[in-house]
Amino acid sequence: MASGIARKLSAFLDIPHLISKTLIRVSPGGAPNSLFPSSPSHPTEGILESLALPTGRNLTYRTYGPANGTPIFYLHGSPSSSLEAGALVPHLSSRNIRIIALNRPGFGQSSQQPKRTITDHARDVLAIADYLGIQRFRVIGLSGGGPYSLACAYAVPAERLAGVGVIAGVAPWKLNPTKGIDWYGRMRFYLNRYFSWAYNFAYLRRLVDDKFKSLSLEERREFWRNDVYSTAISVGEKDKLALQDKEVVEEIVDCTMEAFESGCEGPMQDSVMLIGDWDFQLEDIEFENVKLYFGTEDRSTPVHGAREMQKIIKGAKLVEYDGDGHWSILDNRGAEILDDFVKDD
């Protein structure tokens, strides 16, 4: 699962409490990309693979489900990683679905991409699709991955797309995405929107990275566990129930740890882009098979934003799950979402 865009680091960094709310979660360094072999014909399920692009960047990804299954590209939340898609594994084989989950630039072992845009990631999806020999596919994004999924609806040639989905996704700023969010969540959005210039200071990024590198692996994991538990204070009842599951919490921690293996720059860049002005307009999406899946008790990306997006995106369908929230939707409704998303096949 994906967590909120910003979390409290003031206890570690000793900077003003309010500004610290804009910072994003960080975790340990990892191994070089060269350690991950690419095997497009039969990639090993759940194992991190790497593709070297002509530009010199590396993209990392994981595949889940049967190799001949209906291909769905899964775009993770922020901050999170391709491990997030593992939550859907129990539902894949019986539905003959194959998931390809990418790590965005700067997340995990995917190379940084300075000055990237949201629609740039659509080209990354196409690069992996071409590499794996996938001509036609679906794309679905969770939370912070939602805008990137919509960017695919805008930028990927229609003949390559079978469907586009958004699960509990971030809505554009002009649609008032903070309506229904608690006070702390609203402040995180506003600080990311109006104090994003703080992320441009290399000193700040280095301070965050160095602080976490000084911690042991278990200390970092414990920090993120506590972060998840603090999040549970202001969520709905189904989200609270989901976050009482220790296995779910550890999966969230795993995703967070991988997200920041290369440092905090990529996720910081991501948060600014999601809350900033996107480089495409929803009105300009011509692909008409877009489906939005939202819980009515989501207090991180409230259903208000989805209702507004449905009004703008031509032909968009909105499915609302009563009582579900940001954390519970994938666990409680994952099978239903997949069934609806591929039912035209």
Automatic annotation (TrEMBL):
InterPro entries: AB_hydrolase_1, AB_hydrolase_fold. It comes from the Eukaryota. Residues 71-332 form the AB hydrolase-1 domain. PANTHER family: AB HYDROLASE-1 DOMAIN-CONTAINING PROTEIN, HYDROLASE, ALPHA/BETA FOLD FAMILY PROTEIN, EXPRESSED-RELATED. SUPFAM superfamilies: alpha/beta-Hydrolases. This is AB hydrolase-1 domain-containing protein.
